[in-house]
Design a protein that fits this description.
The protein is an alpha/beta fold. It has a 6-stranded parallel sheet, with helices on both faces. It has a 3-stranded antiparallel sheet with strand order 7-8-9. Strand 8 and strand 9 form a beta hairpin. The N and C termini lie far apart (54 Å). Bound molecules: adenosine monophosphate. The site of adenosine monophosphate (AMP) has 17 residues, from helix 3 and strand 5.
């Protein structure tokens, strides 16, 4: 009997590993229900795969505070725009499962797109207002896709806690708001950005970068550090700080700025005065690859 590539990988991994790999919603639900019935607190790490140390740091945080850890690997089509990289997004299910198993993950949910969306999606979860800020402004519909799939995953896994990276700061704001307003009983835990040795924020998309672009990509971090330095020397005018960040990006040819903003981390509203805890966030195209980075003033 033939099987799809993902399904074959799932089957062969399943035969070899102690980690449970579920391809269907029913299997995943049954596994989670059994864990909860045993009195275990499930920690959940949703991902799109092509895992790196950033993802694994979420798994480690989950292991520390939960009894069992479940992860999902799903490249969610509804959060990609028509001209984005859905078809070329890296897919490495076998390697990802090996990494997760080494980290002590007990179950992986790796459904197909047909399993998650058997029909064209007509029901959406959307956080109005926030979804049009930062990445949502340049990627219309992106956060609607994110909140919809995360809501579905929360319904399937029903975790006690879910772990997200500060790297996607706007996503954190949107998910926190969704959880609060829709009364999900999950605790949202946010983990720090994991970086390469030279400061580039780790991202599954970094593998798209050619050697020259990999160097150019460092300008995102440089621009954030420039703003931090100015802030530490006393500058509180957000317009001036943003200008300094944008100038730094503009100096790197081959990099096209998408946004550079200083916003309230919960409402994502732009701030006039850059107060302690404000989110400084940048997105830029390095060649064709869109990268993001951020930090919080006075915090890191
Ligand atoms: P993704 O696979 O890109 O959807 O990311 C899955 C989760 O990993 C999200 O919560 C991301 O914020 C988080 N993540 C991605 N990159 C990093 C990083 N460099 N440091 C910390 N968390 C990250």
């Amino acid at each position: 009997m033939g099987c799809s590539e993902d399904e074959c990988i799932r089957r062969s991994m399943y035969e070899q590993s102690i980690m449970n790999i579920a391809g269907t919603i029913r299997e995943m639900r049954e596994w989670c229900e059994a864990r909860r019935a045993a009195g275990e607190r499930i920690g959940f790490v949703p991902t799109m795969g092509a895992l790196h140390e950033g993802h694994l740091s979420l798994v480690r945080a989950a292991r520390e505070s939960c009894d069992v850890v479940a992860a999902s690997i799903f490249v969610n089509p509804t959060q990609f725009g028509p001209n984005e990289d859905l078809s070329k997004y890296p897919r490495r299910l076998e390697r990802d499962c090996e990494l997760l198993e080494k980290e002590g993950v007990a179950a992986v949910f790796a459904p197909s797109a047909e399993e998650m969306y058997p029909r064209k999606a007509t029901t959406w979860v959307e956080v109005e207002g926030l979804s049009e800020r930062l990445d949502g402004r340049s990627r219309p519909g992106h956060f609607r896709g994110v909140t919809t799939v995360v809501a579905k995953l929360f319904h399937i896994v029903d975790p006690a806690a879910a772990f997200f990276g500060q790297k996607d700061a706007a996503q954190v704001a949107v998910i926190r708001r969704m959880v609060r307003e829709l009364n999900f009983r999950v605790e949202i835990v946010v983990c720090p950005i994991v970086r390469e040795a030279d400061g580039l924020a780790m991202s599954s998309r970094n593998i798209y970068l050619r050697a020259e672009e990999r160097k150019q990509a460092l300008v995102l971090r440089r621009a954030l550090i420039r703003v931090q330095e100015l802030w530490l020397s006393g500058e509180r005018n957000a317009v001036k700080l943003v200008e300094a960040g944008r100038d730094e990006i503009a100096r790197e040819k081959g990099v096209r700025l998408d946004y550079f903003e200083i916003v309230d981390p919960d409402s994502l509203d732009p701030m006039g005065e850059a107060l302690n805890g404000a989110l400084v966030a940048v997105a830029a195209y390095v060649g064709p690859t869109r990268l993001i980075d951020n930090f919080m003033l006075g915090i890191a």
